[in-house]
Amino acid sequence: MPVPSWSPDPPRVFPPAVTLSVPGHGELFLRDSGGEGPVLMLLHGWIATADLNWGFAYDDLIEAGYRVIAIDHRGHGRGVRPLVPFRLVDCAADAAAALRAFGVAPATVVGYSMGGAVAQLMARDHRDVVQSLVLSGTAQHWMEPQTRRYWRAMSALGLSLALAPRASVRGYLKRVGLRPSPLMAWVQSEVMRHSARDIAEAGRELGRFDSRPWLGSIKVPCAVVITTKDSAVPVQKQRELATAVRAQVFETPIDHLDVTFRPKLYNPALLEALATLTAHETARAA
């Protein structure tokens, strides 16, 4: 029986898209809900986009009173395609430049997976734009053999995306448990927006990333949302990160990709972490 053909329509209405031209960074693609609430800069994970990572969290965050800004990183989705190798420090600089251009710094920066590494670099290199951090499904490094093998295997997706993009994406989505459906059609279309070269280099960047020498020196209020069933970022590594940044810890029983597909489990933990940081900032200002 032939597989039904669905239009790759987004599963819901997302915040307005903004193309922000920033000298030295190019045209950055962001979602921006607008509004007068506390500003969140959402940073997505590897092989995701802002919408793939946060699409089912936008509404809950906006309803809680936040102004939501979410960027597509370099080489991912609609992100910029510079003629230089992918570097996490450049992703951090892009996000910081966007906050300055919008005139909303400092903001709370929320980083998931690779976005957590970018958030750590923002706090190190662009302290003026970071009011507080929420780190989730992420770590200080991915250098132990088991995790490095995982990232190397995932990096092979970059090559397969270049050689056979449709079949590669469809096969990957099936391996992670997503079956043909209207949602899968949209997910596949989002993943196929990536630059294969940049996705592969991003995997190598994650293998090189190590914030242990400097993370403890960053003095930023921080919360960590631990994904306790994570098969990509071991829970122990997430707890080590929380200790290093002296963070308040919140937990949610999801696997790595469930941040997208199980928002009813993830979003409450994220909102609780944000509320705690907001209360901390209010008390400090009083």
Task: Describe, in plain words, how this protein is organized in 3D.
By secondary structure, this protein is α/β, with parallel strands linked by helices. It is globular, with a radius of gyration of 18 Å. The protein has eleven helices and eight strands. It has one domain: Alpha/Beta hydrolase fold, catalytic domain (Rossmann fold, 3-Layer(aba) Sandwich), CATH 3.40.50.
Quick overview:
This protein has helices at 50-54, 58-63, 88-102, 114-125, 145-163, 165-175, 182-191, 196-208, 235-244, 258-261, 263-285, and strands at 17-22, 26-32, 39-43, 67-71, 107-112, 130-136, 222-227, 248-252. With 286 residues, it is α/β, with parallel strands linked by helices.
> Distance N terminus to C terminus?
65 Å
Separate helix tally: 11
CATH class assignment: Alpha Beta
The structural class is: alpha/beta
Number of domains: 1
Count of individual beta strands: 8
Widest sheet: strand ordering: 1-2-4-3-5-6-7-8
Give the H and E element order: EEEHHEHEHEHHHHEHEHH
How much helix is in the residues?
Answer: 40-55%
Largest sheet: 8 strands, mixed
Write a concise keyword list for the protein shown above.
single chain; 286 residues; alpha/beta; Rossmann fold; eight-stranded mixed beta sheet; 8 strands; globular
Please render the helix and strand layout as text.
Layout: E1 17-22, E2 26-32, E3 39-43, H1 50-54, H2 58-63, E4 67-71, H3 88-102, E5 107-112, H4 114-125, E6 130-136, H5 145-163, H6 165-175, H7 182-191, H8 196-208, E7 222-227, H9 235-244, E8 248-252, H10 258-261, H11 263-285
Parallel strand pairs: 3-4, 3-5, 5-6, 6-7, 7-8
Antiparallel strand pairs: 1-2, 2-4
Helix pairs in contact: 3-4, 5-6, 5-8
